[in-house]
Amino acid sequence: MNIVIAIDSMKGCLTSTQASHAVISGIRQARPDAQVTAIPVSDGGEGMLEAFGAALQCSAITATVHDPLMRPVTAQYGITPDGLTAVIETAQACGLTLLAPAERDPLVATSRGAGDLIADAMRHGCTRLIVGLGGSATVDGGCGMLEALGIDIIDDRVDTTHSLLNGRQIEVIVAGDVSNPLCGTDGAARVFGPQKGATPDMVFTLERRLSQLADLTAQALGTDHRNSPGAGAAGGMGFALMAYLNATMRPGADLLLDLLDFDRQVAGADLVITGEGSADRQTLMGKLPLCVMRRARANGVPTVLLAGRVGDRQALLDAGFTAVHCINPADSPLDQCLRPAIARQRLADWGCRLALGRDPGATW
After folding, report:
1. Is 227 domain-assigned?
2. Is residue 261 part of a domain?
């Protein structure tokens, strides 16, 4: 039996690698002879550095940067063996996980740390940046990030006099998992603000700030990216990277799967197991499990989706997943589900069950 495992991180609980190893332990228990390939994956959010760094054989670089509240924090990014490409996970510097729940305030939180990482990579001589967006605590339109790069947004003007980008040719590829615009009903403030601690009044203020930033940027640069897909990613960092660094947006999942030559790895497999923390209709908006399933399906390989929470199961099945399973019993308290040891055991149990074919309607 040949099984490929490509599970995204389960936020606040397990990394991609930890989740994969848990499933493997269950498979080994049931089928010691099974051939199992585990692939660390990420769509640009939490765990992006680990997944992309492994795919590109990066060396880890440590830097002291600012967290969302401007406190010093140690973060890492990766540099490829040729020294030219940096892999930057912005959540390392301005991620929501860096803040206690009581500290979450998107009116204050800054993306400055993401700019610190980019600046450090440039000082190391990198001319190509792969920047992962996701899991941020910020809705500042990337203004903090730009400030760290020497680009100041001052009242009614943009000052690039001291920009670190002046005279440099930098290629920037943004890996993200959302296509939201900067402003509006589906924009950064209204969709992601509440997830980061914003009250309705805060959302109104954040929306106004982002709209003003878009107007000012369009006036200064002559281009308007407020409605570009992905502009609203990471609280508007997608917008700032496209407008000021001429970044190219790529779905993080597909970018990584291309780098991993995933189609070759999945060809000839009997089963693909993918997963994430919470699976529902949002999974069908280009998130990693969907990309994994589509590629596996193109190679005639069934895909099982495991998640800590499952909603819209029928929609997921209709999209092409062979089976969709919630690893947690229906009556499990959330705090229990988020305990790493419990999540590992439940993933292992499902790995064992799948390897034994104990899944109604199994076709492998």
Report:
1. yes
2. no
Q: Which of 224, 253, 282 is the last residue of a domain?
A: 253
Place of tokens 């919470």: 278
User: Containing domain of residue 336, as a range?
Assistant: 2-40+266-355
- For residues 274 and 323, the answer to whether their CB atoms sit within 8 Å is no
- E-strand spans in 177-253? 248-251
15 torsion bin: left (phi>0), alpha (psi -120 to 50), beta (else)? beta
Q: Is the pTM of this model over 0.70?
A: yes
In a domain, 260, yes or no: no
279 - beta bridge partners?
A: 310
Instruction: Say which residue the tokens 């903090």 belong to.
Output: 144
| DSSP type of residue 83 | S
pLDDT in tens, 189-228: 999 999 999 999 999 999 999 999 999 999 999 999 999 9
User: Would you state the structure tokens that stand for residue 129, as one six-digit string?
Assistant: 């940046």
Query: What letter would DSSP give residue 190?
Result: I
Strand partners, 60: 78
Q: Domain check: are 202 and 150 in the same one?
A: yes
Whether 188 is in a domain gets the answer: yes
pLDDT of residue 361: 52
Within a 10 A sphere around the Cβ of 243, how many other Cβ atoms? 26
pLDDT tens track for 283-325 = 987 789 999 999 999 999 999 999 999 999 999 999 999 999 9
Residue spans of the chain under pLDDT 70: 360-364
How many domains are contained in the chain?
A: 2
Q: Which residue has the tokens 């680990």?
A: 50
